[in-house]
Design goal:
This protein has 126 residues and is mostly helical.
Length: 126
């Protein structure tokens, strides 16, 4: 049962972290060039624009869920499994999500890297 909880925590970490990354990327694309905004209107304008963006707030919430899931996962499983598996699978999920939701071009090198990472996770799980 402990192994089930460990892998469930990894799944939640991956899904929440990927969702957070996608939401934050979308929010920051809407915010625009932060450096330019900071130079022209100051730090408070940057913070205000970010905090006023619902995608930013949802992204932070998702990343918070991922962090607390990591804590739960570490209480159930070994760090030598939890950390690399969640990081690796998040890399794979981010490539897929970037293509599907952000319409980013993910070239063949990134897909090959994601496939290699998935193979590494399979070795960890064995």
């Amino acid at each position: 049962m402990k192994q089930f909880y460990t892998w469930a925590a990894i799944l939640v970490i991956v899904l929440a972290s990927t969702s957070g990354d996608v939401l934050l990327a979308r929010a920051m694309k809407q915010v625009g060039d932060v450096g330019k905004l900071w130079r022209e209107r100051g730090l408070l304008a940057v913070v205000g624009r970010m905090l006023g963006n619902p995608f930013f707030l949802l992204g932070v919430l998702a990343m918070t869920l991922a962090f607390y899931s990591l804590l739960f996962g570490l209480s159930w499983g070994d760090v030598s499994l939890i950390a690399p598996a969640s990081a690796s699978l998040t890399f794979v999920a981010n490539a897929i999500a970037a293509r599907l939701f952000l319409h980013e071009k993910v070239d063949h090198r990134r897909w090959l890297a994601a496939l290699c990472v998935a193979g590494g996770v399979a070795l960890l799980a064995a």
